[in-house]
Amino acid sequence: MKHSMVSSTRDKLFVTFAAMTLAVMAVVSLFVGKYPLTVQGIVSGDPMQQNVFLTLRLSRTVLGVVGGFCLGIAGFVYQTVFRNPLASPDIIGVASGASAGAAAGILFLSGTLWITAASFVGALAAVLAALALASVDKTGRSSSIVLSGIAVHALAQTVLMALKLTADPEKELSSIEYWIMGSLNGVRPDALWGNFLLCLLCAAALFLLHRQILLLSAREDEAKMLGAHVPRLRLLVLLTATLMVACVISLTGLVSFVGLLAPHGARLLTGRNHRKTMLLSGLLGSSLLCGADILARSVAQTELPVSIFTSLLGAPFLIWLLVRRARSRSV
Amino acid sequence: MKKLLALFLALLMLLSMAACGKEETGRPLEEVMQEMTETIGETEETAPDYIYYPTSVTDQAGRTVQIQSQPQRLVSGYYISTSALIALGQQDKLVGIEAKADKRPIYSLAAPELIELPNVGTAKEFDLEGCIALEPDLVILPMKLKDAAQTMEELGIPVILVNPESRELLDEMLQIFGKALKCQNMVDALTVQMAAIANDVQTAVAEQEPVKVYLAGNSDFLSTAGAGMYQSDLIALAGGENVAAGIEDNYWVEVSYEQVLAWDPACIILASDASYTVEDVLADPALANCTAVKNGNVHQLPSAAESWDSPVPGGVLGAMWMANVLHPEQVDNWTAKKAVRDFYEAFYGFQYPG
Fold it and tell me: Reduced to 3 states, what is the DSSP secondary structure of residue B345?
């Protein structure tokens, strides 16, 4: 009892600390960029500075925060539900579906908004196909979802390859490649708000369902004994989490590592699996994506893909956590 | 003695004329026609094929290429070399060209028969076997296809690798063609004309303050040309200043809206094959405060014949067009249009549309 109280205050501390880190990141993110902004300029009403701040800097920062948060908790949900430390929304094909959709958008439609819409549709189609395939297996095992996810992933990759093959190397192919590498650059405020609303709804739903999610991490027969309708619940939770991811990656392109690293970080810090861990996953995801984006836009004269930095920042952090755990166990 | 010499010479002339006459009547009309078209603009090159060939040229990859006899079956796997071959009057020898020829208006305007030719793919997916099956006696490929060139060379097919990435390299490529195909006079005529256009532009804008230009790339408004790219040279030639010249890259680079606003270009020029329009840029809320957008100074490089932001022979006309956009007092519309019309009429034999 006493132990759990200690760890509960410690968890609170972690959450507060993560939230503070994120706040710092967000403020830095608002003031780092190619256009020189000053607080005085924005307050005194310089139209150019205000415009840059409100339409460009703010939407990019918000996308970093919300996007990272969503990827973080979606990763947590997947790892928990599948009881697999490597699970991520990618395993049921959402990422490849989104890529194929975006590629089709780049080839056949034009304009950022349409590409976003196309990748969203692609992601959703892949997820629905995977879940529909899985539901053919009446036993409702979680492995059938993974298997159908792999099948859908392979199909989507094939479509992507075919699209790349028809693409003009000068124009479309480079756009597709750049999209796949992921970037928060060029995000337009008018494209953001619909996706954000959906993200927030999904995130809220997942927090409300957090008990059920933890239940799903128990063995299936045990969960059933506790009164859960496992397959239906699992479907609902996965669909919500994936919808959220689709919202994010249709705007940013693929962002690697955030969904994998954030939940591991959170679990390694708290040592447990509960609501605060989920929150911590989200906060870590946000900080990671924000930090990576700050680097992506300021390291070079040009814009770099954000995934380079999510991996670059994330991998050492994960290694540090693993070393820390190994040490505390050996003591 | 003099009389004797005169008689001897007269006899010699008579004999040679008789020989000529006999030869002429004995040859098919087609061959004679071909020889006649070849000799047009080739007054200096009187050396017959058997003296001229075999010859060897050094291509742009630094390889030495042996050419045994006058090439009669050419394959060109790159749109820039194909366009140059048309300008040099060599299109009739082509038996295969790069893929997607129907997408390039220059072919339908200047040499529609090329569109019907078998295609040998693109630099990305080169059709090696298809190319060999055409039994070419000279193949011209972009530098990227070095491996394919190696393979064909082992099969005894001479391959010239070209890399026309700048105006100087384009000139170099044309000189190689002149030597390999024995059409030096056409090469001279073309390069002189190209240099004259460049010189006209340069002189006209020489005293002018450079205008800040943002060049928006083909795939996306936020991709732009760094200092190492052909487009950057074109801007400089036309009296502009590429705002992205601080970026040393020699390929398209990605920048942010913020960066564009910080540069605040006075003029935005869209690449010829941009997948978006001038209207899209003017309507983009993120660019509303940019000087070029506020003044409506956003233009797209024309592509009615070919992409002038690529190092085709006509690419220098892109500088002329751009000088007209940036410094209309120095290079007026009429002058620019005339240069374009004259160039395509002289070297490609068609009336430039528009």
Answer: helix
Considering the domain architecture, whether residues B178 and B209 belong to the same structural domain is answered as no
The mean pLDDT value for B173-185 works out to 94
Structural domain including B168 reads 49-182
Which of the listed residues B182, B216, B238 is the one where a domain comes to its end? B182
Residues of A within 8 A of B126 (CB-CB) are: none
Q: Is A205 helix (H, G, I), strand (E, B) or coil?
A: helix
**C-beta of residue A306 within 8 angstroms of C-beta of residue A296:** yes
Chain-chain contact of B220 with A186 (C-beta, under 8 angstroms):
yes
ipTM surpassing 0.95:
no
Domains of chain A: 2-330 (1.10.3470.10)
For residue A107, the chain B residue with the least C-alpha distance is: B275
Instruction: Identify the residue among A174, A187, A193, A297 best suited for mutation to test binding to B, counting B beta carbons within 10 A and taking the highest.
Output: A174
Find chain B residues with C-beta within 8 A of A165's C-beta: 125
In a domain, B214, yes or no: yes
Yes or no, beta carbons of A170 and B273 under 8 Å apart = yes
* Residue A47 to residue B289, Cβ atoms within 8 A: yes
The pLDDT of residue A265 is 87
For residues B171 and B267, membership in a common domain is answered with no
Give Cα separations from B159 to A8, A241, B290 (angstroms).
73, 56, 48
Domain co-membership, B218 together with B262: yes
Nearest to B276 among A33, A47, A110 (CB): A110
CATH code of the domain containing B166: 3.40.50.1980
Domain membership flag for residue B98:
yes
Q: Do B177 and B209 sit in the same domain of this protein?
A: no
What tens digit of pLDDT does each residue of A192-204 get?
888 889 999 999 9
Q: Could you tell me the pTM of the whole model?
A: 0.79
Q: Where are the alpha helices (DSSP H) in chain B?
A: 2-26, 29-39, 49-52, 79-87, 105-110, 128-133, 146-154, 167-181, 184-205, 230-237, 257-263, 278-283, 291-294, 316-326, 333-348
The residue in chain B having the minimum alpha-carbon distance to the alpha carbon of residue A172 is B219
B162/B209 same-domain check = no
